[in-house]
Amino acid sequence: MLMRILAIAAVAVAFTVQASAQGSRQAPRLPVRADEGARYDRCLEEAAKRPTDAFEEALAWESQGGAEAARHCAAVALLHNGQPEAAALRLEKLAQDMYLQPPERRAEVVAQAGRAWLEGRNAAMAAAAFTTALELWSGNPEIWIDRAEAYAAAANYWEAIDDLNRAIELDRNRADAYAFRAAAYRLVNETTLAMEDAARAIELDPRLPDAWLERGILNWLKGDVAAARRDFLQVLVLDAEGPAGDAARANIERMELKLDDVPAPPARPRR
Predict the structure, then answer these.
(1) N or C: which end of the chain has fewer CB within 10 A?
(2) What's the pTM?
(3) Residue 35 is assigned to a structural domain of this protein
């Protein structure tokens, strides 16, 4: 993503999912009978390594009475196999059918569907899924951050900020939420608030590369090139081979060439 250094709200600037939906954090694990726990674990592990085989195994397991766990593994296999839309539909149907389960567990499954929709670049469907998840479990800051990501992917930055406000109210120690909100504030030209959030993110987690990256961009925007360079170099110390490191490296190169565009950071930190 690129943005003009002199125009914060550049055309078509979008927030990106820093990790794929299947890998951004640990997937929910459904309850199973004691004699099926090992099979469920093997199926989920296989889904990450050999998703086609895992999908077939999950279907066979479901036909043998595997029920919700088998259906969940099948959806996860599709997600790892590059079929996020099909996975999202299966996960949403699974969450609907889990009406006897606690609402928090259903919320986790439908939120996983939302992340699958994000993986498929369907921000509207993702936001709808996360809204459903929040109706089931409004006290989970992770899901508020998820929906903020969906809003930001559609360039609805103020709506993203509202959801990040709620996430931070629920957990004031979430460095990733502050760093994400800093990026959102930057994109609506609220750079003072953005700088405050970036600084707070660094204070909470000095090893979060995205927080340093965001502060580096903000320092560059205000003309403090030396401070920006220091922040970008710190990103390279923390995440030299990752997406934040790539963005920092590109920024340093542009600073050296005196170009006027800055790659926006991967705006949602890794979990």
Answers:
(1) C
(2) 0.87
(3) no
